[in-house]
Amino acid sequence: MAEPMTAMPASPQPRQRRRLVRDLKAMPGFTATAWLCIVTLYLPILVLIAFSFNENRSVVLWTGFSLDWYAKALENDGIRNAAWVSVKVALFATVISTIAATMAALATTRTKPFIGQGLVYGIINQPLMIPEIVTAIATLSLFALVKKLTGLNGIGYLMLAHAAFCIPFAYMPIRARLETMTLTLEQAAADLYAPPLKVFTLVTLPLLGPGIVAGAMLAFVVSLDDVIITLMIAGPGETTLPIYILGAIRRGITPEINAVSTILVAVSVLLVMLLFIVQRRMQR
Amino acid sequence: MTGTEIARDRKAAVSARALSKTFGQGDYAITALDSVELDILENEFFTLLGPSGCGKTTLLRLIAGFELPTQGSISLQGQDITDKPPHRRPINTVFQNYALFPHMTVAENIGFGLRMLGKPTAEIKQTTERMLALVQLEAMAGRRTDQLSGGQQQRVALARALAPAPKVLLLDEPLAALDLKLRKNMQLELKSLQAETGITFVFVTHDQEEALTMSDRIAVMKSGKILQIGTPRDIYDRPTHRFVADFIGDINILEGTVEHTDGDLATVRLKDGSMVSAHLGPASARSGDVSVAIRPENVRLASAGETPTLTGVLENIVYFGAATNLHLRLGTGEEIVIRNPGAVDEGRYQPGATIGAILQPELIRVLE
Amino acid sequence: MSDREPQSALAAAIDQNKRNERVTRAWLLAPALAIILAISILPLGITVVYSFLTPGTYGGVTWEFSTDSYVQFLFQRDIFDDTLVFNSAYVSIFLRSIGLALGATLGALILGFPTAYFIATKPREQRNIWLFLITLPFWTNLLIRTYAMLLIIRDEGIINIMLMKAGIISSPLTILYTDTAVFIGLIYSFLPFMVLPIYASLEKLDFSLVEAGYDLYANRLKVLFHVIVPLAKPGIVAGCILVFIPGLGAYITPELLGGGKKLMIGNMIAMQFGASRNWPFGSAAALILMALVIVVLLVNALAARRGASNNG
Predict the structure, then answer these.
(1) Nearest to C46 among A112, A138, A163 (CB)
(2) What is the torsional sign of CA C203, C206, C208, C209?
């Protein structure tokens, strides 16, 4: 038995690698590029935030810390009205799109694969695939036609348009959540005498909860941030905060805009951070 | 079949008649179950054994009601339940990955079935406590299920499925995720739990040893069909199919021709001309070319002066502690393995030596 | 099989199940599909119709068939003798847009690939932080981000002030309202779209392949271009598409950083529905933009399919 061992020539000790490379994966310059990206992405926003606290009107030179511009912004009726419109529209769009997206996600993950499934995915994701400006003018054309035919006006058009483009954003995390939830849990509930409605309310819905919350938050942020579609279809008195800001920038740069912008950024960042926490919970 | 014979004098808990299940359609259709006939008796530990893809899990899911069969019927204690949804069947399942509800505590998991059945709170509480005691998890009642170890999760799954006192308990490879030692313990525990509760257990596994250890009866499945149903000894000692013989333990298979038969005994001329007598299975061919099978432990070395049944050249000796396997190449080119208890005299048995083997006649089977 | 009764009952149960499932599915899908079909897809049909109509005097359309919108895209009608003269104005806007979008894609790739690779080679905990940092700007308002960029690149912006203080330049560099500003703005806007898909494909990469590359005598550059880049190709392609398409249809960036003088397709389309009051021409331009996007997606889908069949 020992024969094959001795038959092999005693191999010399393999020479140790002499190269003192700590991390073979590292590439020269990549770290610097990554930091450059972060600086590029954040520097402008940080400058904007900093100048929103500047007491000087010039937006160029830093003279001292002040909250005056926030006070001015909050007193401004135009800004307050726009903020209220933004919140109204975003809330409506969030509720409608989250409900529709949840139902659609259940249909695409909790029933057997069906003919036309690809088409359904295509339709749901359609608002993501077409340039926003095209959707904007197309929606404008439709709404103009409907307004002419029915004579109906109002903020409902804007709300519906937001609901439509929020659906794919709400749909993504809900579907992802449903796909990681194995059907076994629902089958286990049915096995333990739960009728279909109870399976849904006691097992599917509670487990889906974080996905729905994530979807709703994304929808809210996306609606709150929209410019192009709103710009095209919003009627008089339907100015949202981003549209107000765009108008103000066109009129000239003031620290007041910086203050409002900072508030809007803060709202989005807070929501997205919350979302990250929710998703981390989900992974556990 | 042995299975149906036993069925006559005891009541069947679950019966399947001409049960088939096809997935997909047209060219992509896969037949997972093919006209299965099966009677699982009251109070028995019944195992569905087979390699992956043999249809054992599909059969279990049909009994549970998660799938509808393509054809055939299933009855529970004589009542047709074929198209009843799972929540209307007094049958519970222990899932392979336990499927514990992550948003409920251990106690809430165990009480779920009773709650769904609309039992009074006091009864739910009492039964849950009894179940927690049964699986020795009293201290864990308020824990979340993801704070438990694999073995503990397994017990919760078991308690949850037993709590509503089902007529039949289905277990889908419940031990597969546990490590070896834990698995051995759980095997014994499950067996005694079954005896204690008197509930019919239907257990799915691909592990032949597990099946032999735990079961009252085993059904060996392959490609959607049940090949043989019987007690562990039936399956091991009297395999009727080459596949069954091969799948469970080691086996020597030799080709031959039936010379004549007498009752369930046949005289078979092997390819090298030697004659053996072998037991016929219920569906074995009674004439012409057949395969005969014998376990290596039922073949022994011929001692000096004995007339060997077969002779061959020793090719390999594999020693593994409790026994030694000697691989013999016969003149016909066929190989047979002799399992000799303990070690062998290495001076006498060396590769290249010509060796005689004796097949114990009462343990040779003619395969179907 | 002996008794027919249970068999037909089973068949009926199977049918009933299938029917129930179909009905449930239809109800569940109805709201989402109805909203998107009505608010997002039906309008595209109207746009097609509008592109063949005649502009109304005060915006909108008059219902008179005309192919003028498409003709106008390439030609100018001579006022005096009604002949068509080639007009490069709109074509050049499209070409400019394509050029800027391509340039921004390349720029984002040069910045984004090393960043994605850097993140993918970090330990898991740090990775999440980096990813969060890359994703966060994506969820903040694009208008505000663009405005912030405007603040720092304008003549009296922080970049010019710092360069002048450092004595590198004596008078401010004019970046704002140039193609450079739009180019920088597009990269800045869509960089996360490049990093994330590349990261997704690099994350799956087994880094022992990199070690195997070194083991087989490749140097760093060779490992990068012969091992890592080919394996990250799906992510790179996805990233390029995700930057190119929104870049092509960009509105806010050229509007703010190009000062409305350096037009891109998006602004031109919007203008037709505003000051220019030529809805049919705007519709036609939007459809041409959409056609460009569809061509890019189709080419990608075909290439992906060919790649898949080559591998399989």
Answers:
(1) A138
(2) negative
Question: Which chain C residue shows the shortest CA-CA distance from B18?
Answer: C1
Q: Which of C7, C13, C17 sits opposite B71 (nearest CB)?
A: C7
Give the torsion sign (CA, A133, A139, A140, A142): positive
Locate the domains of chain C by residue range. Answer: 89-311
Nearest-by-CA chain C residue for A244: C143
Query: What is the rounded end-to-end Cα distance, in angstroms, of chain B?
Result: 13
Same-domain check for residues A231 and A103: yes
Low-confidence ranges of chain C (pLDDT < 70): 1-7, 260, 308-312
Structure tokens at C157: 């912006």
CATH second-level architecture of C89-311?
Orthogonal Bundle (1.10)
C151, C202, C252, best to mutate vs chain A, most A CBs in 10 Å? C151
CA angle A70, A71, A73 (to 5 degrees): 60
Give the model's pLDDT for residue A9: 44
DSSP state string for B78-121 = TEE-TT--GGGSSEEEE-TT----TTSBHHHHHHHHHHHTT--H
Rounded to the nearest angstrom, the minimum Cα separation between B218 and chain A is: 24
The reply to whether C13 touches chain B by the CB within 8 Å rule is yes
Note the ipTM here. 0.87
Mean per-residue pLDDT for B212-230? 94
Q: Which residues of A touch B (CB under 8 A)?
A: 182, 184-185, 187-196, 198-199, 203, 206-207, 284
The residue ranking higher by pLDDT, A169 or C75, is: A169
What is the mean pLDDT of the segment spanning A130-146? Answer: 93
Q: Is the pLDDT of residue B2 over 50?
A: no
- Which residue among B68, B70, B82 sits closest to C6, beta carbon to beta carbon? B82
**Third-level CATH fold of B2-242:** Rossmann fold (3.40.50)
Instruction: Extract the tokens encoding B347.
Output: 């001076």
Q: Residue B16 phi/psi, 5° resolution? A: -120, 135
pLDDT more than 90, % of chain C: 45
